[in-house]
Amino acid sequence: MTGKMICKTIAIAAMLVAGGAQAQEVVRLGNLKFAHYGAVSYMKEIAPKCGIRIDEKIFAKGLDAMQAVIAGELDVATTASEAAISGRASGAPIFVVAGFAKGGARLVARPELNIKSVKDLKGKKVGVTRGAIQEVLLMAELQKHGLTADSAPGKDVQLIYLSYPDLNAALLGKNIDAMMQSEPQSSQAINKNFGAEVIKPYDTPIGEPVRTMVMTEKFYKEKRPVAEKFMRCFVEATKMFIDNKALAEKYVRETVFKGQITTDDFNDAMGNAAYTYDVTPEHIQVTTDIMLKTGVGKMAKPPVATEWVKTDLLSAAKKSLNVK
Q1: 195 phi, psi to nearest 5 deg
Q2: To the nearest whole number, what is the mean pLDDT of the chain?
Q3: Do 27 and 52 meet the contact criterion of CB atoms below 8 Å apart?
Q4: What are the pLDDT digits (tens) for 266-308?
Q5: Are 84 and 66 in contact, with CB atoms under 8 Å apart?
Q6: Strands across the sheet with 210-216, in order?
Q7: Is 213:99 a contact under the CB 8 Å cutoff?
Q8: Of residues 231, 304, 302, 245, the one with CA closest to residue 273
Q9: How much is the CA Rg of the chain, to the nearest whole Å?
Q10: Strand-strand pairing, 210-216 and 94-103
Q11: pLDDT digits over 133-156, tens only?
């Protein structure tokens, strides 16, 4: 091989390496540890074949992920809609680009208290995670049934604000009477016999809450080709979880929860939640209106959903993969 040919070969190899590096651009993703967030976690497993690499960071709650977005530490984050709405109301430069799950909430009470309805919560201590979609749903249910609530004693219901894991511990320890909890924690409480379902809180105008995927405006506008690859990866991972329940269960139980939840926990959790792709401006607007009405999030200027729900990337990704 001549020196000229060697130089040419090296140049081609360098171009291929550069092209590969460019193809594997990193997307910084914030996610939460719940059963119905599993398909989003699975994206990092198939990301290389999508032409990207996903750096996933796990947060305790959606508001924490939103803070990381605002700080410029993430390109994309998954959260319940209320954290996205609060973030946008606070001036966060984000767009809602997809809905990845729906449902995933349950009002659970101590079995011995025989609480059968929301009205039975009068005089009780009810645990909830502050600023979570469960708080929005709880306040909407209490308002619907004419009950007042506050974290200070004196109202019909005393709210006890705790993290998701601490809610289960408080119910088990009888420090609270009921909780509005996420999945799979609410299913675990029921399966371990220290909780009983009161209702699935989907009978308010919100219906089943849709969990939202948010993208920074900068990423959406300035890294369009990478954003397109990311969205196709999301649709592909979600379709795999919808079509292959065994894969979804194995990944969530073994990889996400490291064996901490049982098959029954997973099945019951996903019996009260569903993987999906879609979200509408109408759903986000209704949620915004109820947050305003119930005082959750305390927004000075509620965002108008049609101005920041952008599902064009999702529509293109679904079309390219023949997903309805």
Answers
A1: -140, 150
A2: 93
A3: yes
A4: 999 999 999 999 999 999 999 999 999 998 888 889 999 999 9
A5: yes
A6: 52-59, 25-32, 76-80, 210-216, 94-103, 273-275
A7: yes
A8: 245
A9: 22
A10: antiparallel
A11: 999 999 999 999 999 999 999 999
pTM given for the model = 0.88
Provide the angle, in degrees to the nearest 10, between the axes of the packed helices 81-89 and 62-70.
40
CA separation for the pair 279, 283 (Å, rounded): 7
Q: What is the DSSP string of 9-65?
A: HHHHHHHHHHHHHHHTEEEEEEEE-SGGGHHHHHHHHHHHHHTEEEEEEEESSHHHH
Residue 248 to residues 183, 212, 242, 255, Cα–Cα distance (Å): 15, 19, 8, 10
- Give, to the nearest 10 degrees, the angle between helix 224-243 and helix 312-320: 60
| CA pair distance 56, 100, nearest whole angstrom | 16
- Inter-residue contact 256 to 33 (CB < 8 Å): yes
Dig out the tokens for 66 from the structure.
Answer: 């939103």
- Determine the Cα–Cα distance for residues 94 and 245; give it in Å rounded to an integer: 32
What are the structure tokens assigned to 187, written together?
């299913």
Residue 5 has pLDDT above 80, yes or no: no
- Position 114: which residue type? N
| CB-based contacts of 320, cutoff 8 Å, min separation 6 | 232
Nearest to 130 by CA among 194, 83, 74: 83
d(CA 68, CA 295): 24
CA quadruple 128, 205, 300, 212: dihedral positive or negative?
A: positive
Place of tokens 């995933």: 104
| Res 4 pLDDT > 60 | no
Angle between helices 81-89 and 281-294 (to 10 degrees): 80
Phi/psi at 91 (5° precision):
100, 10
- Nearest Cα neighbor of 208 from 276, 116, 295, 291 is 276
